[in-house]
Specification:
heterodimer, A: alpha+beta, PH-domain like, 4-stranded antiparallel β-sheet, elongated, B: alpha+beta, 6-stranded antiparallel β-sheet, 16 helices, 25% strand, YdbS-like_PH (chain A), Bacterial membrane flanked domain protein (chain A), YdbS-like_PH (chain B), Bacterial membrane flanked domain protein (chain B), UCP026631 (chain B)
């Protein structure tokens, strides 16, 4: 190893689908919006208490909108994946970011998951688990076709390796 | 690999005899019913013979539940049978829901015997066979209520079969394979495992809840009233000190009792080649066997008080010990013992001359890691003091002073912990092991075999990214699943990963000219 060089983690090669931004926005709105909507409705109908619900509405709405505006785009910039002949490599997260590498020889099961919201956007998620309880690689926000191909490739690669992968 | 199928081959020789559970189990089952009867009697005495409908209903439903449980257990006793053939263990049970299970001998990872006090009174024990499947709890099989003799015999036969199939030599029974035995001098460490104090709260809470359910208000009991009268007139600080003292005393007594119960008769040995066995427990006897093939390292844990007293505990890092809860109790190799002894047992267990947890030269982590820990101390002390100051500004200046003094005191204590936590941090690649150490409240030094690492997880929070740090997690099938090297400099962390498992992370790492 050369001493005058710094090592850096290279981001995985493939981005997830742009549609994933829409999916994450919708998903975050389910958490962020119900509270301000409740306050808004109360503000509309309980006129004497408007001085309370007005500020509450704003206090609940602004952070929620910020979250919905920032998180999906940030995630899109971080979430990436890559599969080589030896390993799967994926990055995820936004404030807390996570990079995972699992050698194909250690992958035990490959699952594909499409939640109702993901289906709405035509997206799929893949989980490749290893024998470690903490070692699963999750790739979310892939196109259906890409996901299916990836699952096939992963399954083929893991079958090629004998042993119980522990 | 042979599949773990429920259907046994038809051409199996039918000469093997079916074994059954011991009939004495019937008595154990009967005794379950004794609990509600005893509770009922106790309530009658406590309330002075006045039984209201509520108590009656509670006790009756309790009794019925216990009767049903006893009935189910009796059914199990009647319908369960097992046998060992040349290559597998078979267990049939149930009448209405019939289950037939068969496990190839090759897949067996461990055979454990556990006996609770009730079982021991009747000379019974439970045998549990675990297989390699970590994910599914239904992976193994268990036989509850064998006579001790049958269970020992069964275990001996299984181990012989396994050894014959794997071509290993059975150990000479005269050979003394003891690695460690209980020394009652270790009892001095027992009070230093903090959770005794927590145990007091749990005990008090559950007693209060039970009494409350039985419509007895504990605060109205004579004993409590008496205490209240005697101490009610004392100043508050005295009362608080007294309560604290009482809690500490009960906590110490509790942890000592837990130690005696959990570790009485402790014996760590190697009964046969390639197998570690821990036997312990005074009332509930436990016996855990760990195949050395499944052993991936060792972890030395030093809770704060224990560390100050120079003690440590040793845990095995092994796969196939069950889920997280089971793993944490079954992986224990020693009670709290002197640190040097823990290290030497670690060396014996791993088959090394000196334990990698002592010998490795741990590299310190960058100063930024210390800054993170100091910041955390600062944030916590401010967060705790802020409500006091806020209330003080609103109500009275006394609280403001209390607030900032609290903050200063907390920060000083926190800073001391931060420095300690920073000094604890360290990592190294030492021979076939990756060694990592961290933590202040419980300092853990883990040595993980490098070929047991089955992936890397790198996490970076926003703060870590700004400080140029990362947390490197070595994923493994053994122990807690991931062993972390916390807050290491990016370049050092990636180099460490490359050193530990050459070639795995390398394709995803790029080199950039140094910035300085």
């Amino acid at each position: 190893m050369l001493d005058n060089q710094e090592l850096r983690l290279r981001p995985p090669r493939n981005r997830v689908e742009t549609r994933a931004i829409g999916w994450w926005t919708l998903q975050s709105s389910l958490f962020a919006l119900p509270l301000p909507i409740t306050f808004g409705v109360l503000w509309l109908f309980i006129t004497p208490a408007r001085f309370v619900f007005g500020p509450l509405f704003l206090v609940a709405l602004v952070p929620g909108l910020l979250f919905m505006g920032i998180m999906p785009v940030w995630r899109y910039r971080v979430h990436r994946w890559e599969m080589t002949d030896e390993a799967v490599y994926a990055a995820s997260g936004w404030l807390w970011q996570r990079w995972r590498v699992v050698p194909l020889s250690r992958v035990q099961t490959v699952d594909m998951l499409r939640g109702p919201l993901q289906q709405l956007f035509g997206l799929s998620g893949i989980t490749a688990t290893s024998a470690s309880s903490a070692g699963a690689v999750k790739i979310k926000g892939l196109d259906h076709r890409t996901a299916t191909e990836l699952v096939e490739k992963l399954t083929r690669a893991t079958q090629a390796v004998p042993g119980d992968a522990t | 690999m042979t599949p773990d199928s429920a259907v046994r081959p038809a051409d199996q020789t039918e000469t093997d005899e079916w074994g059954r559970l011991n009939p004495r189990l019937f008595l154990v089952n009967l005794s379950v019913v004794a609990t509600p009867l005893a509770t009922f009697a106790a309530t009658t005495v406590l309330t002075g013979g006045e039984i209201n409908l509520q108590v009656l209903i509670t006790c009756a439903s309790f009794l019925i539940t216990c009767l049903v449980i006893a009935g189910i257990s009796v059914m199990r006793l009647i319908t369960t049978r097992y046998r060992i053939t040349d290559d597998r263990v078979e267990l049939h049970k149930g009448r209405f829901f019939r289950s037939e299970r068969s496990i190839p001998v090759d897949r067996i990872r461990s055979v454990d015997l556990t006996a609770n006090p009730l079982h021991r009174v009747f000379g019974l024990t439970s045998l549990k066979i675990a297989t390699g499947d970590q994910a599914t709890s239904g992976g193994g099989l268990s036989l509850d209520g064998l006579s001790v003799h049958d269970a020992e015999e069964l275990r001996r036969r299984l181990s012989e079969l396994r050894h014959a199939r794997q071509g290993l030599a059975t150990a000479d029974p005269d050979d003394d394979a003891t690695l460690a035995r209980l020394d009652w001098a270790w009892l001095r460490y027992a009070p230093l495992t903090l959770w005794g104090v927590g145990g007091v709260f749990i005990a008090v809470g559950s007693v209060y809840r039970t009494l409350h359910e039985m419509k007895v208000d504990p605060l109205e009991l004579g004993v409590v009233k008496d205490l209240e009268e005697r101490f009610g007139s004392l100043p508050l600080w005295y009362g608080i000190l007294l309560t604290l003292a009482v809690i500490v005393v009960i906590g110490v007594a509790g942890s000592t009792a837990t130690f005696i119960e959990g570790w009485g008769g402790y014996h760590l040995d190697r009964p046969e080649t390639g197998l570690l066995r821990v036997r312990r427990g005074l009332l509930i006897t436990r016996s855990v066997s760990i195949e050395e093939q499944r052993l991936r390292g060792a972890e030395v844990a030093e809770p704060l008080l224990l560390r100050w007293a120079g003690g440590a505990r040793l845990k095995a890092v092994a796969s196939g010990l069950g889920d997280e809860d089971e793993n944490s109790s079954r992986s224990r190799l020693t009670p709290p013992v002197p640190r040097a002894l823990a290290q030497s047992i670690a060396a014996d267990v791993l088959g090394e001359r000196v334990s990698p947890t002592t010998e490795a030269q741990l590299a310190p982590h960058p100063r930024a890691a210390l800054r993170r820990r100091l910041n955390r101390a600062l944030i916590w002390s401010v967060l705790i003091a802020a409500p006091l100051v806020g209330l003080g500004l609103w109500l009275t200046p006394v609280l403001v002073h209390t607030g900032w003094i609290t903050a200063v005191v907390l920060f000083c204590a926190g800073a001391a912990f931060a420095f300690d936590a920073y000094r604890s941090l360290g990592h190294a690649v030492h021979g076939p092991y990756l060694v990592t150490r961290s933590g202040t409240f419980t300092r853990r030094t883990a040595a993980l075999q490098r070929d047991g690492i089955i992936g890397w997880t790198i996490t970076r929070s926003a703060f870590q990214r700004r400080a140029g740090l990362l947390t490197l997690g070595a994923a493994t099938a053994a122990g807690s699943g991931v062993y972390k090297v916390r807050d290491v400099a990016v370049s050092d962390g990636l180099a460490l990963a490359e050193d530990a498992v050459p070639g795995l992370l390398a394709p995803f790492v790029e080199r950039a000219p140094a910035r300085h």
